Amino acid sequence: MKKKLLIFLSLLTIAAFSACSDQTAATDTKEASIQSSEESTAVESKTAESTQSSEESKTAESTQSSEESKTAESTQSSEESTVAPASTQAPGPLSENVPKKITLSGNRDDRFLADDFCYVEGEKFFLLLEKDVCVPGDYADNVALIMDQLEKETSLTFAVSYPIIPCDTCSVKYGYNPWKDLFFGQKVPIYLFIDRESVGYISCASAEFTIIYDYNLFSDEVWDSVPAYHDNPWRRDGVIEYSTVAHELTHTLTLRHAKLTKILTEGLADYYAEKVLLDLADQSEDFKKSARNMYLINSVKDTLTPENAEEIFLNDYSDLSQIERQDEYTLGRLYGIFLAKNYGDSFLKDFLEVSKEAGYSYSAFLGDLQEKDRVVLTNEFKKLFGDDVFQKFGEWYQTLQ
Ligand SMILES: [Zn+2]
Question: Residue 295's pLDDT is what?
């Protein structure tokens, strides 16, 4: 299992709050949240033992993708009431009423413990720390390296020219938004959150923000106060989850440009996370370790052939129950490897351009596409990469098995 999935279940609570216009739906969401949390715990346990079966990993994957879309839905409603400052305004505080700005030492062996909300500002991001987050001194530097490398690998930029729709995800979590007077501009707000009650929140992303839950960044005090944590020391293995950071930031990056299918969204996030961390491996031992911790396999559950590859791509795992959704990560990653090899490193940028022209431009959130949209994107995929792209992919896939 990918280490990013060590942190589970999600902002479903957020979904429950935001879906308040539908009381029944909200209740169902909470119940689902509890159930998924239990399933996730089982997966985490196996992960720690390095004996996780693919079946288990699928549960985790499906939980994550479900979480991501729930988060999207929930934040979408809250953003409508938020007014963005003029796009010409420089990022930074709009008043004195913002949490303290801090700098980290840059030294991997140092630890910074947040005693209140505080933030680090980078060239391309705001790192927003919740109280009790404890980060190594080089964390912000490493995030900057990942963002730079992601831009390099994809030839895309986080700083798009149009306004990013602001979302108030914090008010749902805290009941208020400590960051309401901090203007992010084109920089990415990266929230480092704590799951204080072991609800099972997971990392997620939208075009506007990236949210990271990493057990390794929870203070010892929080860790020791939650039985579900301190009774399960395997949950915190000391490997900072930079793969999660890279995965979620890939979502933010691509969503700022255009929408992709689910297979490409999740799979390419894994593809670039692995690629970026391996490219940066000589910069930090932590990158190497985090890449090694990703649970990457080369086969999907259903038989994939040259004949049915297109159909699977078109269905985009939309007809399966969420609990079985998992193969999009594997398949999308393999498409990344295949397209880079056969088409060139610009495949993502070129396809996002095509997607944008087809009407799927800047997309605030992840989420399932309707069938008519999947048909359009599948046809565009063939137009760009060749009518026989699925046949060739299927043949190549079979050589991996
Ligand atoms: Zn994802």
Answer: 85
**Å from CA of 266 to ligand 1 middle:** 5
Q: Counting Cβ atoms within 10 Å, is residue 54 exposed (0-12), middle (13-18) or buried (19+)? A: middle
Q: How far is the CA of 71 from the centre of ligand 1 (A)?
A: 12
Determine the distance separating the centroid of ligand 1 and the alpha carbon of 100, expressed in angstroms.
30
Cα(117) to centroid(ligand 1), Å: 26
pLDDT tens across 349-360, in order? 999 999 989 888
Ranges in the chain, pLDDT < 50: 1-83
Encoded tokens for 252: 């933010």
What pLDDT shows up at residue 390?
Answer: 98
CA dist., res. 297 & res. 20, Å (int): 39
User: Ligand 1 center to residue 91 CA distance, Å?
Assistant: 27
pLDDT attached to residue 23: 25
Cα of 105 vs centre of ligand 1, distance in Å, is 30
| CA atoms of 219 and 238, how far apart (whole Å) | 12
> pLDDT, tens digit, for every residue of 313-351?
999 988 766 556 689 999 999 999 999 999 999 999 999
Q: How far is the CA of 248 from the centre of ligand 1 (A)?
A: 6
DSSP 348-387: HHHHHHHHHHTT-BS-SS--PPPHHHHHHHHHHHHHHH-T
> What is the predicted pLDDT for the residue at 96?
93
- Cα(305)–Cα(392) distance, integer angstroms: 10
Structural contact between residues 242 and 290, judged by C-beta atoms closer than 8 angstroms:
yes
**4 Cβ contact list (under 8 Å, min separation 6):** 64, 203, 241, 243, 244, 247, 248, 273, 294
What pLDDT score was predicted for residue 320? 61
Ligand 1 centre from 203 Cα, in Å? 8
